[in-house]
Amino acid sequence: MGKIFKFDQDVDTDQIIASQYIIFPTIDEMKAHTFESLDADFASQVQEGDYVVASENFGCGSSREQAPAVLKALGVKAVVAKSFARIFYRNAINIGLPVIVCKDLYDNVNAGDEMELSMKEGIVCANGKEYACTKLPEYMQGILDQGGLIASLEQ
Predict the structure, then answer these.
(1) In whole angstroms, what is the distance from residue 106 CA to residue 145 CA?
(2) Cα–Cα separations (whole angstroms), residue 131 to 5, 8, 17, 139
């Protein structure tokens, strides 16, 4: 079980990690500023295994790979949203951050609720209810299991 951090629609990559922080030399230095403009306490409160739940078009904006990377570095287990910007989705898979489409979850949970995700089954459990979500193809799940596309190719 992980805690839900909930964000609205059209969260862009500059809101995930603002451009002034991408000049920092490492993701570890950047991650303290994740979602700074939307939730100043996010980076200090999120814990390993927590989830980001969002509405539509999560990760729109620029193509910066640092946006999914800071979420992964903070221990976010997955981002579950109604929909994703394509470039964010690809970047997340490339670095090994699960991104799952679930149309009904967002409207039925609140920030602070707990949930559990079974990517293998394509099910999210929250507040005593199950929600069907995208079940990743086996090859894509394999990429995530190996830490992302880059790590997969290196193996």
Answers:
(1) 25
(2) 17, 19, 29, 23
Give the separation between CA 126 and CA 14, rounded to whole angstroms: 29
Q: What is the pLDDT of residue 139?
A: 83
pLDDT tens string 90-103? 999 999 999 999 99
Q: Are 54 and 82 in contact (CB under 8 A)?
A: yes
How far is the C-alpha of 96 from the C-alpha of 101, rounded, in Å? 16
What's the CA gap between 155 and 48, in Å, rounded? 25
Lookup: tokens for 148: 């992302």
Separation between Cα atoms, residue 33 and residue 6, nearest integer Å: 17
- pTM of the complete model beyond 0.90: yes
